[in-house]
Design a protein that fits this description.
By secondary structure, the chain is an alpha/beta fold. It has 17 helices and eight strands. Helix 2 crosses helix 3 and helix 12 packs across helix 17. 53% of the residues are buried. The protein binds fe (ii) ion.
């Protein structure tokens, strides 16, 4: 921890531009092969009897829903299944899922699926527990930004992919159809009560899904590690009211710990996990790193690669995702829409915290012994590009259908994502965002 005290201003309260303190809230999780079979015992300990089990059409035919349902029923719970969660959820699909929750009068929820399913379940739980229009709780200025009043009903989250970390975040993201943009709800009350993270689910993930999920997790960790320090972020509340401290509080000593470990594990395992489908150990490692990276970014917050990704996925024209994703409409998978921006971003942010960028590259496996701090951003970018090439990832935004002529529109669409953009270590304008998009068009 070369300069942690200086980086975070631990020498004292005086002179802080931002919040001198940070908070840590994590949920209970279980990790290990076969742990989905514990669902019933966790439901029982949480007092759940009448359960709404949320999943989607892709997952419902895999063995995991049946495993979890059997375990819940063996524990004496009644289970009603909702399988209409959407892969890219919208305000419409969130509302439909909430109506099922309201009608079902459940006393607890279980989600079995990817981040979209888990996010949908959080929203359904919220709207069934504290009824209001969805937009009341959505982040301002797009929504009203009303605080979630208190604890929700218990929710056991069972991820079937290995990237989003949604099982350990208090975030639910969706497409707001009327605005054609991604937005969401953030609250520590939406943290699932339990997460059951079973690496055996990676058996059924295609290499392309593991690649995109793995890069999503990598980016959660890397953005958290290079985020603006909590002590240097503009404080959004007065005095010492810790309950008002935002979840995206900036980099801190605790999130650094998770980021380092996630980057180290992903650096050692991502290429193996994608390129050798028989390497179950590497795939399990990616599942674990995604869990840790999820807790990390839930605590610190992401920044530019994620802020820019929502425009990349939202303006998609005709890019068909690789095998393993739904093929019925054009789509840039989330992890892909994030990491394609990343080398361009770190070339820009490197100068804001060069030692941190060099450290991050080293955790990912780069040799930085001869690197100069003035090259820090480039060193990170090179390592990311090396990993992208090693798993046959698209070569920048060009490869998913964009050209430099789209940069202004992409920037226009990304700029409202101020919650994440302001977490970046350097300030950006719409014009500099457009330059970052231009820099992300082609890498090799
Ligand atoms: Fe993400």
């Amino acid at each position: 921890m070369y300069t942690c005290c200086r980086y975070y201003g631990l020498e004292g309260l005086a002179g802080h531009e931002g919040d001198a303190s940070f908070s840590v809230e994590v949920n209970h999780f279980t990790f290990g092969p076969g742990c989905l079979r514990e669902a019933g015992s966790h439901a029982r300990s949480l007092g759940m009897k009448r359960i709404g089990l949320y999943t989607d059409k892709l997952v419902r035919d895999l063995p995991y829903v049946a495993t979890v349902k059997r375990s819940l029923e063996a524990a004496g719970c009644s289970v009603e299944i909702y399988w209409e969660c959407e892969v890219e959820p919208t305000d419409r699909s969130f509302r439909a899922a909430a109506q099922f929750a309201i009608d079902g009068q459940f006393d607890g929820f279980v989600s079995v699926g990817g981040g979209s399913v888990i996010d949908t379940t959080k929203a359904a739980n919220l709207l069934a527990t504290y009824p209001a229009d969805l937009m009341a709780y959505v982040n301002a200025p797009i929504g009203e930004g009303r605080a979630v009043p208190g604890a929700l009903k218990p929710h056991i989250a069972c991820p079937t992919t290995c990237g989003t970390g949604s099982e350990v975040t208090g975030i639910a993201i969706f497409d707001l159809l009327s605005h054609q943009c991604k937005t969401g709800i953030l609250s520590r009350h939406m943290l699932p009560s339990r997460a059951l993270v079973d690496p055996d689910v990676t058996h059924t993930l295609s290499p392309a899904i593991i690649a995109a999920n793995g890069f999503d997790a990598l980016s959660h960790a890397l953005e958290s590690y290079t985020a603006r320090p909590h002590s240097a972020k503009a404080k959004t509340y007065d005095g010492f009211d810790g309950a008002k401290r935002p979840m995206n509080q900036g980099a801190n000593l605790w999130s650094d710990m998770g980021a380092r470990e996630s980057l180290r594990i992903i650096g050692q395992n991502l290429v193996r996990a994608v390129n050798d489908p028989s390497d179950q150990q590497a795939k399990g490692a990616i599942m674990y790193s995604a869990l840790i990276a999820g807790m990390t970014f839930s605590n610190a917050g992401c920044h530019l690669p994620h802020g820019m990704s929502y425009a990349v996925s939202g303006l998609v024209r005709d890019f068909k995702p690789p095998q393993g994703y739904p093929q019925d409409q054009p789509m840039v998978p989330h992890g892909m829409s994030v990491v394609l921006n990343a080398p361009s971003v770190y070339r820009f942010t490197g100068e804001a915290a060069p030692e941190r960028h060099l450290e991050a590259a080293r955790f990912l496996g780069a040799n930085v012994s001869d690197a100069n701090v003035t090259d820090a951003g480039e060193v990170v970018a090179k390592k990311l590009i090396e990993l992208m090439r090693a798993v046959n990832f698209p070569n920048g935004l060009n490869a998913v259908g964009y050209t430099e002529a789209d940069a202004d529109e992409l920037a226009e669409r990304a700029f409202p994502q101020q919650r994440v953009i302001k977490n970046a270590p350097r300030d950006v304008t719409k014009a500099s965002l457009a330059e970052l998009f231009k820099g992300a068009m082609r890498y090799w």
